[in-house]
Amino acid sequence: MFDLGFWEVLIIMLIGLLILGPERMARAVRMAGLYMGKARAAFNAAKSEVERELQVEEMRKATESVRKDVDKVRKDVEKNARRFEAEADGVGKTFRDVGRQADDAAKGVASGAGGDDARSAGAGDPSGLTDQRGSDQPPAGGGRTAAGERGEPAEAAPAQQSEDTARKGQGGGGEEKRQ
């Protein structure tokens, strides 16, 4: 603290002994030791308080640093999640497009290769309303094909529409009368 060596302390004690005398010197040394202990305790308390404050400040800085890192990682994860969702949507769309193309290709192969055979297979139906599969049900997808007919050639579509209109006017749907 004051950087007093052994010889300096000895000289101070001798001077105190000469000035105070042997009776008061013992009491003075006791009081000096007591005050030195209190001063040392106060100094240590202040030192530990400053160290705690520094640690708290360091912890706040570390917490801020971690919070910034977490925010950065969260933003990166959100960005990657949005990119992943967009890619997944693109893959889903591509998958649906490929499925549609496959369905269209299958329909094209079925209508191109077996179109005459399908019409002749439906020749047993006097109304001519069976589709290429031999079913009386309209094709999937709203009941109309690309040409606007119900599975018949394009020339038969207007005649079929007038038959449907006539059946509806008679109070019944066309399905019961076909059989």
Assembly form of the protein? single chain
Distance between the termini: 116 Å
What amount of the residues lies in strands? under 5%
**What's the gyration radius in Å?**
51 Å
- Strand element count: 0
Give a quick account of the main beta sheet: strands, pairing sense, barrel closure. none
Q: Mean pLDDT, as a whole number? A: 74
Ordered list of secondary-structure elements with their pairings:
Layout: H1 6-113, H2 115-121, H3 157-169, H4 174-178
Tell me what you see in this structure.
The protein is mostly helical and 179 residues long. It is built from four helices and no strands. The protein has helices spanning 6-113, 115-121, 157-169, 174-178. The longest helix has 108 residues, at 6-113. It starts with 5 loop residues before the first helix and ends with a helix. Residues 115-131, 142-157 and 172-179 have low confidence and may be disordered.
Key descriptive features of the protein:
single chain; 179 residues; mainly alpha; disordered C terminus
Task: Summarize, please.
With 179 residues, the protein is mostly helical. Helices cover 74% and strands 0% of the residues.
